[in-house]
Amino acid sequence: MKAIQITAPSEMKVVDIEKPELKPGEVLVKIKYVGFCGSDLNTFLGRNPMVNLPVIPGHEVGGVIEAIGEDVPESLKPGMSVTVNPYTNCGKCASCRNSKVNACEHNETLGVQRNGAMCEYIALPWSKIIPASQIPPRDCTLIEPMSVGFHAVSRAQVTDIDIVMVIGCGMIGMGAIVRSALRGATVIAVDLDDEKLELAKRVGAHHTINSMTENVHERLTKITEGFGPDVVIEAVGSPATYVMAVNEVGFTGRVVCIGYAKSEVSFQTKYFVQKELDIRGSRNALPADFRAVIRYMEQGTCPKDELISKVTKPETARQAMEEWAAAPGKVFRILVEFD
Questions:
Q1: Measuring CA to CA, which residue among 5, 99, 102, 9 is closest to residue 57?
Q2: What's the CA angle centered on 256, arms 190 and 161, to 5 degrees?
Q3: If pLDDT is split at 50, 70 and 90, which confidence band does 236 have?
């Protein structure tokens, strides 16, 4: 079967691999679409230290069930539209012991620590199959990245009395904006791109700030009447946005970090103490986060077409990745179509 493989930095090609054999307890999924995410871009650029090349990328999946193995629940049926939970959990580490399997110490994500789903078929344990029968396979690719943003909002314990600032309006940031708005919070979206900020308004942001052209602190002071946001969710992963999160969050506020900064970050640690901050990491997502995204998407208000920047074929995937690398700020998601 056909698959896409990243063989070395800036090298991507279509290869032929064996179609997986279905084992007991597994489901065979026919892949229709797979999304390229930021980790795939970093792998392509040689900036992902967790990857061992060559690797088949891809963990944002939209497909249909092709076949069912033995000992699989009857609720999973051939032809059903699905996405997948791309993470593993060992069941033995501290995170798993504490029922936080999303942060398993030994997690292996599809397309990162193990070969991913950017191929025609994939076989996975039935417990990793997430039914989404009311959502077309193309749109199922948006579920996993949005669930990461949803999980960050859960980590922040957002309520309807909170003012939440989300830094970064990519796919994961959009998920955080959506979930915060669904919980009734007042949401402030911060980004460098006006088009992304306009879309952030459509999915629930009440205020937007272009940090390239506006003074973020002055705008926040006005919006929050000088108190600062109750919650800041960092969804960029740069030293500047990490510092912004700590500096701008209100006293006794919560800072939730999703993005990985690629270099060391210097903080005024006095703010940690003076503000008595809760600073929390947020990794991957839990099954409940996937279900919440599916419910949101079933409501029909998600601007799915705007969130999908480009659909390409396996043979032109490398070109699409090169275009994304040249203008990363203009892309939400690039999908590869295998159908």
A1: 5
A2: 75
A3: very high
Strands 333-337 and 231-234: unpaired
Q: Using CA atoms, how far apart are residues 319 and 82, in angstroms rounded to an integer?
A: 28
Please give the Cα distance from 152 to 48 (Å, whole number).
22
Half-sphere exposure of 313 (CA within 13 A, CB side): 4
Note the pTM of the prediction, 2 decimals: 0.96
List the one residue out of 200, 300, 181, 188 whose CA is nearest residue 250: 188
Look-up of token digits 């698959």? 3
Residue 294's Cβ-count burial label (10 Å; 0-12, 13-18, 19+) is: buried
For each of the domains in the chain, give its residue range(s) and CATH number, in order of start: 2-142+302-337 (3.90.180.10), 148-281 (3.40.50.720)
Residue 330 has pLDDT above 90, yes or no: no
Tens digit of each residue's pLDDT (9 = 90 or more) over 38-83: 899 999 999 888 898 999 999 999 999 999 999 999 999 999 999 9
- For position 57, what pLDDT does the model report? 98
Q: Which has the closest alpha carbon to 235: 123, 317, 150?
A: 150
Which residue, among 250, 251, 55, 285, has the nearest Cα to 172 in the 3D structure? 285
Integer Cα distance of 211 and 316 in angstroms: 34
With b meaning 16 or more CB within 10 Å and e meaning fewer, what string describes 82-119? Answer: bbbbbbbbeeebebbeeeebbbbeebeebbbbebbbbb
**Distance of alpha carbon 37 from its chain centroid, rounded?**
8
Residue whose token pair is 């003074």: 215
3-state secondary structure of 254: strand
Q: DSSP assignment, residue 129? A: E
Residue 331 has pLDDT above 90, yes or no: no
**Integer CA distances (angstroms), 206 to 75, 209, 285, in order:** 40, 10, 25
Q: And the tokens for 314?
A: 């396996």
Q: Render pLDDT for 269-324 as a digit per residue (tens, 0 to 9).
A: 999 999 999 999 999 999 999 999 999 999 999 999 999 999 999 999 999 999 99
